[in-house]
Amino acid sequence: MAHQYIARETGAIISEKLIADRTIALLYNRLREHAPSLFQALTSKRMSGWLGFLHFDLNLPLCHDQGLALLKRMGVDWRECLAPHHSFTSARQVFERQIRYWDCRPMDPDPQAIAAPADAKVLIGTLEETPELFIKEKFFSTMELLGDSPWHTSFAGGDFAIFRLTPDKYHFNHIPVSGEVVDIYELEGGYHSCNPQALIALASLHAKNRRVVTIIDTDVIGGSGIGLVAMIEVVALMIGDIVQCYSDTKYDHPVPVVKGMRLTKGCPKSLYRPGSSTDILLFEKDSIVFSEDLRKNVVRRDVQSRFSSGLGRPLVETDVKVRSTIAIKRPGLAAGSLQPAPTIPQAFRRMMP
Predict the structure, then answer these.
(1) What is the pLDDT of residues 156-186, one digit of tens each?
(2) How many domains does the chain divide into?
(3) Does 125 map to a domain?
(4) Among 77, 108, 280, 335, which is least packed by CB within 10 angstroms?
(5) Domain for residue 69, yes or no?
(6) Strand 159-165 and strand 120-126: pairing?
(7) In Å, how far from its chain's centre is CA 136?
(8) ∠ CA(26), CA(32), CA(33), 5° rounding?
């Protein structure tokens, strides 16, 4: 079955060319059911790293393009890149490219506008209004996704946005809101594909992968004023690492993200190395309102989405640009009006990196 999404800028329905689609079908259907040990090995960190090396480091036959030819083959607009086009000699360099986001990814300066954290295809929803998604646990449950922490209670009944990055995308993640980091921790897991076929086949796939969870308190001076926001960066097949490299100005002087740090909306936060991957945002109940076009697109019935067929209801992705507005603060919500953040148990603090 074809998989389509909607291009936000034009409204066009686009058929996605899914990489290694037949291999994913074999892996997540036959092998998962009939050879579970082999399936587990193929989605391990070692295998994911090996596949990443083959695709992004080793110059395979017929893949010797450089400069403009390489950028074109990977579907990248060279005019956005910070480095000159002739400097790109490998797929990894293209994957880890920096862009002039301050010019080519404009952002609404209104602090109450929530920005997309990545160039990605986004699915939006509400945990309260779409419980069938989580009864089946096709995407995630907050308890599994956030791990053994008290934070899942803060997002009960709230809204979520899932951003699926494909290998051709710009792979720096940017801060969606302004606020203070009240917690950041890493959860171990596998390296499953984020192909729609895999997401439908394997329940709660995102919660099974290695991920970094960052909890941001926006009810601070200069913050976005929408309460707590969870940003979860999830690795996928061929991803080698998530590098935390926050920069206040362009890509200058990157530093690791740590508790107590103030983050400014729109700034680079981290980099995926390399492959495909997923960002997930969780918001507290009644704190935000998603953009109207995203709300209309997600329920369209004229788009062939694999998520729609897999879940028995319309569920359509929209392709968005990093730093573009995906939601706004709910009208009437006063900063600081939400429930205070839960206290982290001392035992849990000792477990955190």
Answers:
(1) 889 999 999 987 899 999 999 999 999 999 9
(2) 1
(3) yes
(4) 77
(5) no
(6) antiparallel
(7) 21
(8) 105
